[in-house]
TrEMBL record:
Descriptive protein name: Phthalate 4,5-dioxygenase oxygenase reductase subunit
MF terms (GO), sorted A to Z: phthalate 4,5-dioxygenase activity
Cofactor: FMN
The enzyme's E.C. designation: 1.14.12.7
Keywords annotated in UniProt: 2Fe-2S, Flavoprotein, FMN, Iron, Iron-sulfur, Metal-binding, Oxidoreductase
InterPro entries: 2Fe-2S_ferredoxin-like_sf, 2Fe-2S_ferredoxin-type, 2Fe2S_fd_BS, Beta-grasp_dom_sf, DmmA-like_N, FAD-bd_FR_type, FNR_nucleotide-bd, MRET
Domain FAD-binding FR-type: 1-99
Residue stretches making up the 2Fe-2S ferredoxin-type domain: 230-315
Gene source species: Paraburkholderia gardini
Domain of life: Bacteria
Length: 315
């Protein structure tokens, strides 16, 4: 659908907020905390940005975009846009929802990962739910939406930490995650290293994997492909397609005329998730949980490969 940038403003160093609305002013599709939208930023680029406004506010969508120094083009293109520009976006999707049965929600954000966490905090505060939010950045100037976090509804629930502060004022993950409970759920979003540190500390403290929820903004660096060729077989037709060592499964499928929807092409968004009927995938994504990987009944062909000579796909 088409939206217009009705407001663009700085919310931290290198981070801009964009308020998007329908050109005719009508209501936007509903969304839940943790949702994101696909934004078509031009030249075939599609990027995912989390919605950070209150879910009940359907007059607009608010996203925050960090200008990445080593951007693949998306964030630089977004920052170049001006108020009044038109954009094509998808309806909201949610791979990072709040658990309805949670008795307490522990929200952890690193850097630009604050965007879905902020929407979650707003929803939980509005519903009177038990929660706390912990937000870590390099320095105060890089903490996005700080003015929103000082609102009365967040008093005593939001805690900020800066790498530039003395060591005893930085976040202590071991202490923060030391008391897992059956009804307590943890949500973390941010750079891959931050997410890894949080999840490692939670597992070490005995948290139930089912109570750990994370969303990555970019894929973790993976080792280079082994160079081994393999084949994929389409269950519907029996067609067998060769995948070269230097080729992704998606590229091989496209070359054979098989269309699988993609978006991030980094194993982050889950758009290309495909069922595996036979064979053993070599998972290289950050979308699937450890349990989902162990099941070996699905994979993301944009980045993952095969450990077996043939993968039979539900295509």
């Amino acid at each position: 659908m088409q939206v217009r940038i009705i407001h663009k403003y700085d919310v931290a160093t290198d981070i801009c907020a964009f308020e998007l609305a329908r050109p005719d002013g009508s209501a936007l599709p509903a969304f839940a905390a943790g949702a994101h939208i696909d934004v078509h930023v031009g030249d075939g680029l599609v990027r995912q940005y989390s919605l950070c406004n209150r879910p009940g506010d359907l007059r607009r969508y608010v996203i925050g975009v960090l200008r990445e120094v080593h951007s693949r083009g998306g964030s630089i293109a977004m920052h170049a846009l001006a108020e009044g520009s038109l954009l094509e976006i998808s309806e909201p999707k949610n791979h990072f929802p709040l658990a309805e049965a949670a008795t307490h929600s522990l929200l952890l954000a690193g850097g630009i990962g604050v965007t879905p966490i902020l929407s979650m905090a707003g929803h939980l505060a509005g519903s009177g739910s038990s929660f706390e939010m912990h937000y870590c950045t390099r320095d105060p100037e890089r903490a996005a939406f700080r003015e929103r976090l000082t609102e009365a509804r967040f008093a005593g629930r939001v805690h900020l930490y800066f790498d530039s502060a003395p060591a005893d004022e930085r976040v202590n993950l071991r202490a923060l995650l030391a008391a897992p409970e059956a009804g307590k759920h943890l949500y973390v979003c941010g750079p891959a290293g931050f997410i890894g540190a949080v999840l490692d500390a939670a597992v070490a403290a005995g948290w139930d994997e089912r109570n750990l929820h994370r969303e990555y903004f970019a894929a973790v660096a993976q080792p280079e492909a082994s160079g081994a060729d393999f084949r994929v077989e389409l269950a519907s037709s029996g067609q067998v397609i060769d995948v070269k060592g230097s080729q992704t499964v998606i590229a091989a499928l496209m070359a054979a005329g098989v269309d699988v929807p993609t978006s991030c092409e980094q194993g982050v968004c889950g758009t290309c998730l495909t069922r595996v009927l036979s064979g053993e995938p070599d998972h290289r994504d950050v979308y699937l949980t450890d349990d989902e990987r162990a099941a070996n009944d699905c994979f993301l062909p944009c980045c993952s490969r095969s450990k077996s000579p043939v993968l039979v796909l539900d295509l």
